[in-house]
Amino acid sequence: MNRTNATPAAGDLRRSLSSLARLVRAPNLFTAPPDVILGAVLVSGGRPSVPLSSLASVALASVLLYAAGTTLNDYADAGEDARHRPERPIPSGDVSRTRARNLGVALLCAGVVVAAAAGGPTTGLVAAALGTLVALYDGALKDTPLGFAAMGGCRGANVALGMAVVAGSPSAPTALTVPAWVYLVPVVVALYIAGVTYMAERETGAGDSRAALVGIAGVGLAVGSVVAAAATVGVDPADSATLAVAGGLLVWFAAWTGRDLLTAYADPRPGTIGPAVGTCVLGLVVLNAAVAGLLSPAWGVVAAAFVVPAVGLSSAFDVS
């Protein structure tokens, strides 16, 4: 092969892959599987009572749906990004708006199909509901007062996706045997992400400390909810594994997100709010792991492991 011809082709491929990674928010993709893991652990009361292959496939479906959401978000925000974020794939010309739309729709459909094939009809229905919320957020609800609530609903539905794969299995526990507090977890996750989204939507505006205050309130709600869940579960003080995993992860979550949120509150501007949003998005992995760790320290560690590639990629690709 002619070496001079190979080099430009290789460079074009790298640019294409880099543009795709920026379009789908590569770091964020690793925040989706912990939602599914958490949901499965919650309904199972510990180790997920489904084959690992099914759980992994549904986690993959959640990644596809997340990638669809970020891609369609950039498609919908192309005009705003041209003004405020010209370096993004669409306004920079690296990816055409039509291609982004087609890719987003394809990913959305693929996510629903994979979820249904791996988890059955119940999981497929939840995935379809999640896909609908994604489409609404990136479409009819974009730039409306309900937009941030729709994004929160997407994350709550992603946790429900993990719950559904267990609920749809032959060995599924009955609804009566699942503690009531379990069903509140997706709601807390939804509220937390709704707050983060509210803050993100004000990232490019004039400095407003109230946006950061909403994020701080979301973190407070999340931490308080985990403490309440621990009290409800009745964690044994002598259970060092649970205390170390769940407690350690919760402290990490609060300290990690709190640092950037307090900075944004003290000096609200795009340069501080943007990083705070990114930290809160990545911090959801740690929050999920802390809750999962209350019921299964081992699965809490598994969920927390996803923060490593997420943070690693965040040094090369944008999160918010």
UniProtKB/TrEMBL annotation:
Keyword annotations: Membrane, Transferase, Transmembrane, Transmembrane helix
Membrane topology term: Multi-pass membrane protein
Domain of life according to the entry: Archaea
GO cellular component: plasma membrane
Organism, as annotated: Haloferax massiliensis
UniProt xrefs under Pfam families: UbiA
InterPro entries to which the protein is assigned, alphabetical: Prenyltransferase_related (IPR050475), UbiA_prenyltransferase (IPR000537), UbiA_sf (IPR044878)
Entry's Gene Ontology molecular function annotations: transferase activity, transferring alkyl or aryl (other than methyl) groups
Bilayer-crossing regions: 105-137, 180-200, 212-235, 241-258, 270-292, 298-317
Record-given protein name: Protoheme IX farnesyltransferase
Subcellular location field: Cell membrane
